[in-house]
Amino acid sequence: MQLSERHHEYWRKTLRVTGVLLAIWFVVTFVIGYFARDLNFTFFGWPFSFWVAAQGALIVYVLIIWFYAAYMNRLDQEYGVAEEE
User: Dihedral, CA atoms, 69, 70, 71, 74, nearest 10 degrees?
Assistant: First the structure.
């Protein structure tokens, strides 16, 4: 099957958003978590590094999933490859 320029454009946009979201995931998981140990102040009675690891990262993960699903649904509709309900 020969892919058209429109297919290549769709795939490029998909790879771009996936790459950006994976970079955000990496930064939240490894970079911020690593440097959170240096944040030595209390936040609601717990060390701030605890909140970054236990709560902040989970919120970012949920936002990443939500954004990816919404973006891909919109992109699928734009390129006519959306699943029918």
Answer: 120
Residue 29 corresponds to which tokens in the numbers above?
């998981």
Computed over every residue of the chain, the mean pLDDT equals: 87
The Cα-based distances of 16 to 23, 37, 50 in angstroms read 11, 32, 32
pLDDT in tens, 28-68: 888 887 777 777 778 778 777 777 777 888 999 999 999 99
pTM of structure: 0.79
SS3 category, 40: coil
Alpha-carbon distances of 70 from 12, 17, 32, 41, rounded to whole Å: 17, 12, 26, 36
Lookup: tokens for 69 = 């699903």
Taking CA atoms, 28 is separated from 32, 44, 46, 53, 85, in Å, by 5, 21, 20, 9, 35
